[in-house]
Design goal:
The protein is α/β, with parallel strands linked by helices. The protein is built from 21 helices and twelve strands. It folds into two domains: 1-31 and 181-350 and 425-511, Periplasmic binding protein-like II (D-Maltodextrin-Binding Protein, domain 2, 3-Layer(aba) Sandwich); 41-176 and 354-416, 3-Layer(aba) Sandwich (D-Maltodextrin-Binding Protein, domain 2). Helices cover 42% and strands 12% of the residues. The protein has a six-stranded mixed β-sheet with strand order 2-1-3-11-4-12, sandwiched between helices. Strands 6-9-5-10 form a four-stranded mixed β-sheet. Strands 7-8 form a two-stranded antiparallel ribbon. α3 (73-81) links the parallel β1 (59-65) and β2 (84-90).
Length: 511
């Protein structure tokens, strides 16, 4: 049986290698001279200050996804800015297609939402016919926006697009960290029947999983991640390291910053301790080699619903859906991540630290009201605009007094991420409380840290090679195909694949 399971792992690893791709061996040894970007001159511009409302007799036309019924925010904005606007609303599900068609025909309103929905390279492909490079108009007419991006080194790079640092969009700016939206959930009914407390430490997780295995005969007490690691570095953060390296942004590719030093989790000693623990759990049948085939949370859902899994990982919405459909009326509860000792706080949490939000606004290259459009956008980064966009009113109110129908969060501006928690439903807040109870994101790299185009291409090649190596080694160590005494060989492979070059690159950018 064990031999068959291990053959399954080898087969699945071969599939993973095909999917991930192997890094070019020459890339790891080639000389790499960093192409560090220079500060964009627009950051030193001194635009004219402006007092709102301004005197304007013109009307600008704005394309937006549909606003909530009863939303009064946009009407109030007209009063506060003095700028009249006519809005064309398109349902969100139809918006990307509608905007794309408008871009192809060149029939785009003065101001439109949606670089994030189409992509900067499509903007560049359409050239000056569609989106205006707003560098010049922002340098003259957007003092609030420039002040917001100038003071932050991450924002001062992510606000620019393209090879030459053009400004095709006003970016939504986020302040603070988001809430934890993903994490472990447990069969609370099983826990209660066994008279066990919510597990906090690795030892307590182990004992609970073993009890689930023995009492309920579940095949997969633990829902292990398909690459030997969980998104958000659950189960690994307690060892002070990252283990998940297959993410889509700089905060989730394995690198982090501890006390000013760039580190790569799999190269740290704590990572091997993590693998050693998982190997022990695998040998005790707390999970099986099937984990390498679980590409998403839907696989957990199937096992949870069939009473074959005790701890799974998903979103609050996943957990709520599972709980509604468990056979026999089972109950699920979110629980904190496992740590080495009760009361330990870890610093590689999954709370988002992204500074620039997806909502963006661009000015049509054909508009003859570029300055007025820039003034309208810039208002949302002012003190008054920030209050209005966050609370739906210019009055000073408490978060619990916010009328959700009065808000419209697809606008430019500076958004307080704490309000996402304070205005969320009870189920979401309960999950966020559990998943953030012993985790912050103090060591995470900025999600939207940007490298130059040349450096990003080189970094991506090397990082993909590292991910391939980490994935293969992790899965093999966990199932016993690779010795626990082979760490030196693992580290040598990481170094050969360009680990130090990646660390040097990120160090230079963060400095």
């Amino acid at each position: 049986m064990m031999q068959s399971a291990r053959k399954n792992v080898v087969f699945c690893l071969a599939v993973l290698l095909a999917l991930l791709g192997c890094a070019c061996s020459n890339a790891a040894t080639a000389d790499w001279v960093l192409d560090l970007p220079q500060p964009n001159p627009v950051l030193s511009a001194q635009p004219e200050t402006v007092s709102y409302p301004i005197a304007s007799q013109e009307t600008i036309h704005i394309l937006l996804p549909s606003a909530p019924e009863g939303c009064t925010l946009l009407g109030r904005a007209a009063e506060l800015t003095g700028i009249e606007a006519e809005y064309q609303f398109v349902p969100m599900q139809d918006y990307a297609g509608a905007l794309s068609q408008m871009m192809q025909t060149g029939d785009v309103p003065d101001l439109f939402y949606g670089k994030s929905m189409i992509g900067v390279y499509d903007y560049l492909d359409y050239g000056d016919e569609v989106a205006l490079d707003m560098t010049e108009v922002i340098s003259r007419c957007a003092p609030n926006y420039l002040a917001a991006i100038r003071e932050d080194p991450v924002l001062s790079s992510t606000a620019f697009d393209g090879e030459y640092g053009e400004m095709f969009a006003f970016y939504q700016i986020r302040q603070g960290s988001g809430m934890s939206g993903y994490g472990p959930v447990i069969r609370q009914d099983w826990l209660d029947e066994l008279g066990l407390d919510v597990p906090q430490t690795y030892d307590e997780y182990h004992d609970v999983l073993a009890a689930f295995r023995d009492r309920y005969g579940c095949e997969q007490p633990l829902g292990m991640g398909y690459i030997g690691a969980m998104a958000g570095d659950y189960l690994a953060a307690g060892y002070g390291v990252t283990a998940f390296t297959n993410g889509s942004d700089m905060a989730s590719v394995g690198f982090y910053c501890e006390d000013g030093q760039i580190k790569y989790g799999p190269a740290e000693e704590g990572f091997w301790d993590y693998l050693t623990m998982l190997h022990q759990w695998y040998e005790e049948k707390l999970f099986t080699s099937d984990f390498v085939t679980w590409a998403d949370s839907s696989e957990y859902g199937k096992l949870i619903l069939n009473n074959q899994m005790g701890i799974a990982y998903g979103t609050a919405a996943d957990a709520a859906g599972w709980a509604r459909n468990i056979t026999g009326g089972g109950r699920l509860s979110p629980i904190p991540d496992a740590v080495r000792q009760a009361g330990q706080q870890t610093h590689l949490g999954s709370q988002s630290n992204r500074r620039t939000g997806m909502p963006t606004f661009s000015i049509s290259a054909k508009s003859d009201k570029a300055e007025l459009c820039a003034r309208w956008c810039d208002f949302w980064y002012s003190k008054e605009g920030t209050q209005l966009v966050n609370y739906g009113t210019e009055e000073q109110i408490e978060p619990e007094q916010i009328d959700q129908d009065s808000r419209y969060t697809l606008l430019p501006g500076i958004y307080d991420m704490a309000l996402a928690y304070q205005t969320a439903d009870e189920t979401t807040r309960t999950a966020a409380d559990a998943w953030g109870a012993n985790r912050d994101n103090a060591w995470r790299l900025p999600e939207d840290l940007q490298l130059s185009e040349a450096d990003q291409q080189r970094f991506a090649i090397l990082a993909q090679g590292l991910t391939t190596a980490v994935t293969v080694w992790s899965c093999k160590v966990i199932v016993g195909e690779q010795s626990l005494d082979s760490r030196a060989d693992f580290l040598a492979e990481l170094e050969q694949d360009g680990l130090q070059k990646c660390i040097d690159c990120l160090t230079a950018y963060l400095q």
